Amino acid sequence: PTIPLILSILTRVFREDTTMSLLQPGVDLLNRLSFARKFQLILAILLLPLLYGGFIIYQDESKLVDVADRQLYGMSIVEVVHPLRIYGAQHRGTSAQWLVGNEGALDKVKNIETKMASALSKAKAAILSNGYSNQTKDRFTSYVSSWGNLTADKLRSLGSAQSFVQHTEWIKGISQIIDSVAGESRLVLDANVDSYMLMQMVVYDLPALQEILGQIRGRGAAVATKGSFDPDSFIAVSTLYDGVDVAQAEMNKHYTYIERHNADMARILKGSVETANIAVKNFKDLTKQQLLDPDTPQVSGSLYFSAGTEAIAAVAKFYELGVKKYYVRLNQY
Hints:
Blueprint: H1 2-32, H2 35-99, H3 106-128, H4 134-146, H5 152-158, H6 160-184, H7 193-226, H8 231-261, H9 263-292, H10 301-331
Helix pairs in contact: 2-3, 2-6, 2-7, 2-10, 3-4, 4-6, 6-7, 7-8, 7-9, 7-10, 8-9, 9-10
């Protein structure tokens, strides 16, 4: 029994000696300092963890601010590029009427081309002068060049059907450029549900709804101008008619998420959402009642095109409000 006791005592003494030897330099230092200096040293030691914690928090907050700045900048680029889709859709629809016999539409086609030239110049300057990947820049440059194949002096040789297809592919390409900008600008990495859903609407949902409305407007106006469907055009317009429902549902789904997570923002957006839904419904009713259901179209090409433009304009107003509120939300970070 005495041997374990002796070992225990020796171990305790060894530990105390080891501890004292480790602390001895600090003890000696404190013994040489005045009381005031001791207090200052202890306070400095206590502050070190706080300073380190503050530095870590600062780094984390700086990263969040950097991301928000990048997102703000990316959204400004999206705003500059987005009009290319709008002018492309207008040019597609107006050209469709012109190519099936409405010669009066040619002046409108050329007017849109003038607006497109200015918009292309602004978008090119924005994309090429900023920190986006070479792949994005090269692809955008190729789309700027390919627009020349869709101007009025080239369209007669294409014909109405091929013109519509090539316009649609060009607009799709511009949307892919915007997708790249959104990804490289970290718009898609927003961790807040309300602002992420708002970003989804203004970058993806609303432009997609505008585009499918633009497609049905263009095809429907061409049919109305011509005065009859053929099997291909009837299938195309019917398919687009159903596609409007899908695009509209995506917009409303994301608005519902915003209602759940940010009631104040939802209240601000509510009027524009309702106006857009009503305008789209009115255009769809016109499409069904005066274009798809009758044996022959009961609406003129110009009237149908105007009705489609009204629906697109209502969605565009919602888009503009959404962009403004998205900027406000990002600036809160």
